[in-house]
Amino acid sequence: MSTDWTDIPEPAPLSSVTAATVVHGPVIPPQQQLLLYSPDQWEDFVQEWAHFCLKQQYIKVQRFTGSGDRGVDIAGFTDAKKLQGVWDNYQCKHYDNALRPTNVWVEIGKIVWYSFKKEYTPPRRYYFVAPKGVGTSLAALLSDASKLRDELNANWEKYVRKEITKTQEVVLDASLLAYVNAFDFSIFDAKTSLQLVEEHRASPVHAARFGGGLKARPDAAKPPAVIKTDESRYVTQLLNAYAEHIGQPVSDPSALASAPKLRDHFHRQREAFYHAESLRVFARDSVPAGTFESLQDDIYDGVVDTHDATHQDGYARVCAVTKAARELQITANPLITCTKPKDRDGMCQQLANEDRLQWTQS
Hints:
The protein is 48% helix and 6% strand. It is α/β, with parallel strands linked by helices. It has a 5-stranded mixed beta sheet. Helix 4 links the parallel strand 3 and strand 4. Helix 4 packs across helix 6, helix 10 packs across helix 13 and helix 13 crosses helix 14.
């Protein structure tokens, strides 16, 4: 018997290799990351998803824990009647497999049984939520309410009768069977991993959990012609700094008309303040709480020695501090990838607005 030998061909070159790819490897889509989650990681994700996403849809969202949950996991309430009103149920399960009919018969049975006993009204919608979604068999049943009902009846004895409660067996007698046959099984559905990821994408913790970078930052609003109350403190500080520089009082911005350099500086600092405020709003919606404040603290720590040094006047102090802020090497904060030099000037004015920085000594 002869053997043919061939050389191993050179592999095709990788395309679009970046520094980030070399350091961190290729980006794994979030829905694929969900497949790798441990039960604890899944629990953390569900908590985030429920807190940031479901709370936007309902007046109240609660999670039921313990053995007496009566088949209710995460409930979203549309009115004050809660379980006696209009509500939706999200049954969050972590299995090593895509959900099968045998995984859910008892859960469906609980909803039927406890609503039959009038412990709550049937939910408006009932979603199975699992990292690997539902398998083809269960998906087919969820798309056919009549078939789902018939299969529940057929599997009641084996999977439901002894599992609803530990205190009794729930027999599918004539009255319960009539209730099951009249029950609206179209309420049962499932959330796909793609749906979960898309809903979670709107949360401020999405990038921190899944990576992939921050979404595009909107343009900052232009400062209004009239100075607003919430910017009055840093404006007053700037006017005092200008007064110290020219040696005469500056009561309001209109007094800067005869000093074009200071007038233009003032307009730039107001623009910078609004840039920083837009970054604050962007951070609130895009990164975990405290991220923007941490960046502010980095700016403060980096400029405070310059701030405390001796300067010719308040205007010189402002210029020295903002210059120092722009030159800072900040790499750890996730907002740094979308922060511009003008934001750093603006954060200095935010710090002045909070009296953490003082442009004049008096």
